[in-house]
Amino acid sequence: MKDILFIVDSGCGLPDKYIKKYNVKVVGLKIYLDGKEYTDDLTFKDKFYELMKNTRSIPTTSQVLLKDFIDIFERAREEGYKRILYIALSSKTSGTYQTALNAASQVKDIKIDVVDTRHVSIGAGLMAIRMMELIKDEGKSVDEVLSISKKIHDNVYMQFVVDTLEYLYRNGRIGKASSILGNLLNIKPILGIEDGEVAVMSKVRGEKRVILQMINKMKGFLEGRVRKRLAFVWAADEMKAKMEKLMDMAHKALEGEEVEFMTMRVWPTIAVHSSPQVYGMIAYGEREPLL
User: Fold this and answer.
1) What share of the chain is helix, strand, coil (3-state, %, to 5)?
2) Which of 114, 124, 170, 229 gets the highest tally of CB atoms within 10 A of its CB?
3) Longest C-alpha distance within the chain, in Å?
């Protein structure tokens, strides 16, 4: 008999390695581009960035439907699972979390827990990885892990940079005047998470200063912590070289320290809102024991 099924959505940006390791079910949000609908899944990522090369339109997303969640939960029950742990993209950025809660209340004879990570992309993914490790590798109960989800959330520090402010402006993150001014003056916004939402944390002029600030902030966050992880992400092809430069500098800055490094292309669900011209560095580290 199967014990627990882990589920994440495409807004959580979980790396393929961990999807395979923990047999994770990924639920894809819908993406609309040039009048066509796509599902953001494991096969869509590279196709999305190819499509973006040949369009001038701004794509949009929509949340997972209630019926889809009910079908997923009921199928898991029929396959013999006794419990589901769904780790969701921040409820402040998508209604998917609330829809999953509604679906869970309608499916009987299986225990379903829905976690609002209040993070996005690999920030939520790092939370999911740690929760799954605790349950599967360290033998903690689901209820124990749910009780410390806030601690796990606080152990994640996110930093993203975009090359264009157009997507941020269209998604209401910055005003039109700031968008125009930033583009003219080569001001780069560093994005992070505030109260579950993607927000502009600071603005720095010039690529070199951006990377230096990101490295310094990351080092400050990780100081004195254990179980350190650093995830480096990029979206459009031209962002990969910038991500690699950031990663090289991080390697040098953390030389001699025990840190797990990972890289991952940003899932389209997130790139739709931030812009495909995005790269970033997301840190995880524990200052004190979780349990």
Assistant:
1) 45, 30, 30
2) 124
3) 60
Q: Strands 4-9 and 25-27, how do they pair?
A: parallel
- Enumerate the β-bridge partners of residue 282: 158, 231
Say which residue the tokens 């200063």 belong to: 209
Instruction: Provide mean pLDDT across the span 163-171.
Output: 62
Torsion (CA) 285, 196, 145, 29 in degrees, nearest 10: -110
In three state form, how does the secondary structure of 112-164 look? EEEEECCCCHHHHHHHHHHHHHHHHHCCCCHHHHHHCHHHHHHCEEEEEEECC
- Pairing type for strands 156-162 and 30-33 reads unpaired
The helices-and-strands tally (H runs, E runs) of the chain is 12, 13
Query: In Å, how far are 94, 165, 200, 245, 275 from 62, measured between CA atoms?
Result: 8, 22, 23, 34, 16
- What's the 3-state SS for 217-265? HHHHHHCCCEEEEEEEEECCHHHHHHHHHHHHHHHHHCCCCCEEEEEEE
The closest of 39, 31, 33, 30 to 51, measured between CA atoms, is 33
Give me the percent of the chain exceeding a pLDDT of 90.
Answer: 76
Which CATH class, in words, describes the domain spanning 4-154?
alpha beta
Tens digits of per-residue pLDDT, 95-150?
A: 999 999 999 999 999 999 999 999 999 999 999 999 999 999 999 999 999 999 99
Query: What is 156-286's CATH topology?
Result: Hypothetical Protein Tm841; Chain: A;domain 3 (3.30.1180)
User: Where exactly are the structural domains of the chain?
Assistant: 4-154, 156-286
For the whole model, what pTM was predicted? 0.92
